Amino acid sequence: MKRLHIVGCPRSGTTLLMELVSTCFANSGFCEHELSIFAPVPVSQGPYFSKQPNDIKQLRHIFHQDPQLHVIYMGRDPRAVITSKHRENPEQYFCNYRVWSECDRAAQAYLGHPRFLSLRYEDLVTSADSVQAGIARHFPFLEQLHPFSQYHLHAAPSAASQRAMNGLRAVNLQSLDKWQQHLPRIAEQLQRRPELADDLLRLGYEADQSWQQLLQDVTPVVYPCRYPERRPLFKEWEKSLRVWLKSRRYLRQLPG
Q1: What's the CA gap between 119 and 142, in Å, rounded?
Q2: In this structure, how many other beta carbons lie within 10 angstroms of the beta carbon of residue 148?
Q3: How far apart, in whole angstroms, are the C-alpha atoms of residue 48 and residue 227?
Q4: Is-contact 20 151, C-beta < 8 A?
Q5: pLDDT > 80? residue 88
Q6: pLDDT tens by residue, 177-204
């Protein structure tokens, strides 16, 4: 059974993509909101869709070994990612540049693989149906039911997904420039991690450094964030061990 798993840095649009894919492509089932790549899924004839953003950092032991695993990585302008507020705590930002960068580096290891597709949130909300056509070309086993541009007429997202998307509505461009409303946060993250500016050039989000003129008279401000600025090394080591053990179990359960 083919499994299509959606990953990406948190706050990159993975929930929206999951709702689009599960609504607009035929499938044998899909997770309600998020599901670990290591969680078992029902066995059936059609593809199963699942999503867990941070799993982009958990695939290294299993992706190349499982020919039925297909992955879509959702990328997004890091300025938009790091200025997305935590919905349950509006005083707290959800993500930071460190986490975005870790996910971006992890994704680069799979670029060009036929079972891996990298998308950009900006392209998805700008030209949803064209992106859908690209997904269908990349994964020929998918059968279209509805165009992405009409998903809101057919979708029935879970309460958790609706909270993550701030409600069900048509794909739109409203959030593309919202990061400009959070310039003190951008200034602080850029001051802490200057390589952010290079990433914007590398990924084509900016043609030069002139965008930094927006920050000319902005005072950097440190805000609370769900993720710490420094990697918790012991916790990460412990997680790596758990991932390795889960990967071994995953591989043992593969057919054949």
Answers
A1: 17
A2: 27
A3: 30
A4: yes
A5: no
A6: 999 999 999 999 999 999 999 999 999 9
Tokens representing 128 are 């949803």
- Six-digit token string for 67: 């020919």
Report the mean per-residue pLDDT for the chain: 94
Question: Residue 18: its pLDDT value, please?
Answer: 95
Residue type (1 letter), 114: P
Look at the pTM and tell me if it is higher than 0.90.
yes
116 phi, psi to nearest 5 deg: -125, 130
Residue 59: other Cβ atoms inside 10 A: 23
At residue 174 the predicted structure's pLDDT band, cuts being 50, 70 and 90, is: confident
Q: What is the pLDDT at residue 178?
A: 94
Question: What is the three-state SS of the chain?
Answer: CCEEEEEECCCCCHHHHHHHHHHHECCCEECCCCCCCCCCCCCCCCCEEEECHHHHHCCCCCHHHCCCEEEEEEECCHHHHHCCEECCEEEEECCCHHHHHHHHHHHHCCCCCCCEEEEEHHHHHHCHHHHHHHHHHHCCCCCECCCHHHHHHCCCCCHHHHHHHCCCCCCCCCCCCHHHHCHHHHHHHHHHCCHHHHHHHHCCCCCCCHHHHHHCCCCCCCCCECCCCCCCHHHHHHHHHHHHHHHHHHHHCCCC
Give tens-digit pLDDT for 5-56: 999 999 999 999 999 999 999 999 999 889 999 998 888 888 999 999 999 9
Distances (CA, A) of 131 to 50, 124, 138: 19, 6, 11
